[in-house]
DNA sequence: CACAGAGA
DNA sequence: TCTCTGTGG
């Protein structure tokens, strides 16, 4: 099982940052943060991303190091967080731990009854992005005046929806399944060195001569985050089979195979839980308080100033150069 | 998730 | 050629 199978089906092309100027990108916050939580932590000594009390703050370093890329190219990010997470700001510490333990229990239960969707969803909530990380990331984004909001369920699906209805020009994510969720244009490698990579839904469907529904079916045959694929079926065979039999059911019947919870997973990709009342929760005109952010990161959360100084400098420089502050 | 090497 | 598995990030 692997989502990377989708890469060989997707229509991808590099786009220079210059072409992205002035655009709005709905960023899958979980995906974006995860990148820093796995890489930053790996190459930095413990004391630099952990407070004296052992609280992980690698996410703060990640935010400060990652945001300049957007600002320098006059790209406005809107971070979309996964839903289902309780509003941590207003809850007691005990409640948070209880919620996490309950989520862990529900995850176990979901796994036992074979509910992959629920298990994956709860796993994302209980593992990498701890309560503190969720909270401090939001706080820092607020101080930097960077827009964000919570999705009802998958941030990826919500970001795809925002892109589809035209409230964002692109989705920002490394994942290929934004394609399945219907994101018209996904930017990959937005944090990496070179030019980003554009994954285009319409071009993909046109090149493959498939409908989105058929693409979802093909992906499910290969295996997704929410279902195991059919052994022996990779992207090539999946395409061939979907073309031969029309849809998932046709293929499964012809090969006498079965996919657990196929109906649910299929429907989940086709019509995921999303919300439409998000635009009034943020303002696209960004006016960061860099000094306050510096204090928040280095003093309140004791992050080694050397780890974030360059990032803050770049943010300050970009404010002047890209006209992000033109409204102020 | 990317890449590489084994195995069919 | 295509799929699967393992490793590293």
UniProtKB/TrEMBL annotation:
Cited CDD domains: H3TH_FEN1-Arc, PIN_FEN1
Gene3D superfamilies, sorted: 5' to 3' exonuclease, C-terminal subdomain, 5'-nuclease
Xref: PROSITE patterns: XPG_1 (PS00841)
Its EC number(s): 3.1.-.-
Domain XPG N-terminal, chain residue ranges per copy: 1-103
Ranges in a coiled coil: 93-139
Domain XPG-I span(s) in chain numbering: 142-210
SMART domains: HhH2, XPGI, XPGN
Residue positions binding Mg(2+) 1: 28, 82, 154, 156
Keyword Magnesium listed: yes
Necessary cofactors: Mg(2+)
Pfam family, one: XPG_I
Key words of the record: Coiled coil, DNA damage, DNA repair, DNA replication, Endonuclease, Exonuclease, Hydrolase, Magnesium, Metal-binding, Nuclease
An annotated GO BP: DNA repair
Gene Ontology molecular function: 5'-3' exonuclease activity; 5'-flap endonuclease activity; DNA binding; magnesium ion binding
KW Cell inner membrane (keyword) present: no
Record note on cofactor: Binds 2 magnesium ions per subunit. They probably participate in the reaction catalyzed by the enzyme. May bind an additional third magnesium ion after substrate binding.
Region (Interaction with PCNA): 320-328
Binding site for Mg(2+) 2: 175, 177, 225
Similarity annotation: Belongs to the XPG/RAD2 endonuclease family. FEN1 subfamily.
Subunit description: Interacts with PCNA. PCNA stimulates the nuclease activity without altering cleavage specificity.
Function: Structure-specific nuclease with 5'-flap endonuclease and 5'-3' exonuclease activities involved in DNA replication and repair. During DNA replication, cleaves the 5'-overhanging flap structure that is generated by displacement synthesis when DNA polymerase encounters the 5'-end of a downstream Okazaki fragment. Binds the unpaired 3'-DNA end and kinks the DNA to facilitate 5' cleavage specificity. Cleaves one nucleotide into the double-stranded DNA from the junction in flap DNA, leaving a nick for ligation. Also involved in the base excision repair (BER) pathway.
Protein name per its UniProtKB record: Flap endonuclease 1
Organism from which the protein derives: Salinirubrum litoreum
């Amino acid at each position: 099982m692997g989502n990377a199978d989708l890469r060989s089906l997707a229509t991808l092309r590099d786009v220079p940052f210059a072409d992205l100027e002035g655009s709005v990108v709905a960023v899958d916050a979980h995906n974006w943060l995860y990148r820093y939580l796995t890489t930053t932590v790996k190459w930095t000594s413990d004391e630099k991303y952990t407070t004296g009390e052992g609280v992980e703050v690698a996410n703060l370093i990640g935010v400060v190091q990652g945001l300049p890329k957007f600002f320098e190219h006059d790209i406005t990010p809107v971070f979309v967080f996964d839903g289902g997470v309780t509003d941590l700001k207003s809850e007691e510490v005990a409640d948070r731990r209880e919620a996490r333990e309950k989520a862990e229990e529900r995850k176990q239960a979901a796994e036992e009854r074979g509910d992959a969707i629920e298990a994956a969803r709860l796993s994302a909530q209980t593992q990498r992005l701890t309560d503190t990380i969720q909270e401090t990331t939001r706080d820092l984004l607020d101080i930097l005046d960077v827009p964000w909001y919570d999705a009802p369920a998958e941030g990826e699906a919500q970001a795809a929806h925002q892109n589809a209805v035209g409230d964002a020009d692109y989705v920002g994510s490394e994942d290929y399944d934004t394609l399945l969720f219907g994101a018209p244009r996904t930017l990959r490698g937005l944090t990496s060195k070179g030019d980003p990579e554009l994954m285009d839904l319409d071009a993909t469907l046109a090149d493959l001569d498939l409908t989105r529904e058929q693409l979802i079916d093909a992906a499910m045959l290969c295996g997704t985050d929410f279902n195991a694929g059919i052994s022996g079926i990779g992207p090539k065979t999946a395409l061939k089979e979907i073309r031969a039999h029309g849809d998932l059911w046709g293929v499964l019947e012809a090969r006498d195979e079965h996919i657990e919870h196929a109906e649910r997973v299929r429907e989940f990709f086709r019509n995921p839980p999303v919300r439409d009342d998000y635009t009034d929760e943020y303002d696209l005109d960004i006016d960061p308080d860099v000094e306050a952010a510096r204090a928040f990161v280095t003093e309140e959360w004791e992050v080694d100033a050397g780890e974030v100084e360059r990032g803050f400098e770049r943010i300050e420089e970009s404010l002047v150069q890209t006209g992000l502050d033109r409204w102020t």
